[in-house]
Every structure is written in structure tokens, then in C-alpha cells.
């Protein structure tokens, strides 16, 4: 074959390789869970989709849940709304709590903080309603500004907010015997939490960008990466979340042998650390994608009119709204 023809084929192969890389970079992230989807997927959270251990958070707004289907879709954990402020309990909490356990989905309860209520009242309330199940995940304290509440929407000074958080974290740990997780959003973290409670696990919200672009924090444990998720067994939108860690760490954390907030072992530490890369800035690692199933692009869903009509205007927060 003439040399010119050989050169042309070589150039063609190079061109195809470049195009392949470009398509790979611009296309949707590979999904580990082909049964799950997203009505409005965002390229900026592709690293979260590649984490091996994923779950959901839910409340009354997800309605009736088929937990067997949720489990079958690969859901590894679920955070379930229990209480809010000092006098509200999610009406579906007990049903969801028992349903998740029966299906074999690891579950933890969360309390949504109201800044206009004394911390002691909220501690009393969640101690009354959050179970002390030994097999439950550690509880979650959901801290955000109550901006949508007419009666409790005013921000309070940072020092006062930190004092309330400290009192409620202590109350949750005393009640359950487990170190609580802190859930927060970008604004509240910037206003109050930067540099605080660093030995606690953090669950951060970012639905359009890597966490390192949104938070001044070197470490995170859970990432809420979409509010428009699609999961078999749940009708409509549901929040999807990713755990930042290995299978060994997730199992040891559930057994109380590994503190994911402090990244310390309490016995049973592996002699060989394995192939885990050092902890870097939040979301900066891009672990190898497994599976290879493209994300399904589903049409946006609408919240049923009935759900909107029955919504309590006092229910606030990104977790509380779901």
C-alpha cells in the first residue's frame, strides 16, 4: 500500500481517538445503578454517580413506597424524616422506618432544626420520637435556614446557631449512642459551619457542581447530588445520595468499628489499607466508573396537585420539602 495511504489511515485513527475522548468527556456519567435515573441529570455531579455506595432520603412527600423495589434497585441506605422543630413528626415516619428495615435497607432518622425553637425543646421532641434501634444508622441533624417559614424564617447570630447545634448534636448522641451526621446546604455552611464540628460526618448538598466548588471543606461523607432522582418503588422525584468511602469502611461504620467523621478505626482496622487514595478536597477524587450503563434521560415529572394542595406551608428546608 502506498505510504500516503498509510499516513491517511494513521491520521484517521488519531482523529477517531480524539473524537472518542471528546464524546466521553461530554456525554453523561456512567451509572452504577441502571435501574435508577434522574429526571434532570447534571454533568457537574458525575463524580457522585460513580460512587459505589448510594442511597436516598425521603419523607411524607414520597407517598407510599414499595421498599422491596427500592432495595432491588440497589439502594444501600435511606435517611428518613422523623421530626421537625419541637412539635412536628412526619406522618409517614413509622411506616417508612419499618418498611425499610423489613426490606433490608439500612436506615437512619433525621431531625429538621427550627431556629426559633429552643434547643432543649427540640431535643425533648426527637428523643420522644426517634427510635433507639441498635441496627439503625446514626441520626442526622438537618441544619439550614428556615427561609420559607413565615413564623420562623429569621436568621440568628452564628454564635447562637452553633450553640444550638452543639446542644442538639449532644442530645442525639446521648439518645442513640451514635455520633450524629450533619446535613447542610451551601449557604448555611458558609454562614455558620465552616471550620466547625469537623469530627462529625458531614452530608452536603450540591446538585449542579462538585462539592469542592461549593464548600470550604476538605472532607465529606455523604453527598446529596440530585433532588430529581428516579428510583423504582417511589413515584416522582426523590433525593439521591452517595457515600464517600469503601465497602469496608461502610460496613465497619455501621458496626461501630470505624468513625467516618474522624476517619479513625476503633478496632478491626485492616492491616493493609487497600487501594484507597488519600482524602483530598471534597469531591476532587474521580474514582473509576464501574458498570458502564449510561444514565437514562427521563422527562421531568410534576408534583401531583394533591400533594401540593396538602403541603404544610410551615414545612421548610430542602430535606423537609421532599
The domain tally reads 1
How much helix is in the residues?
Answer: 25-40%
Overall geometric form: globular
Instruction: Please give the number of β-strands.
Output: 14
Number of helices: 10
Topology pattern, helix = H, strand = E:
HEEHEHEEHEHEHEHEEEHEEEHH
Give the CATH class.
Answer: Alpha Beta
Supply the helix-strand structural class: alpha/beta
Termini separation: 65 Å
- Quick one: biggest sheet? 8 strands, mixed, barrel
Tell me the β content: 15-25%
The strand order across the widest sheet is 3-4-6-7-8-9-10-11
CATH A-level architecture: Alpha-Beta Barrel
The CATH superfamily title: Glycosidases
**Global mean pLDDT:** 82
Question: Uncertain runs with pLDDT below 50, 5 residues or more?
Answer: 1-10, 12-30, 272-318
**Computed Rg:** 22 Å
Report the CATH topology name: TIM Barrel
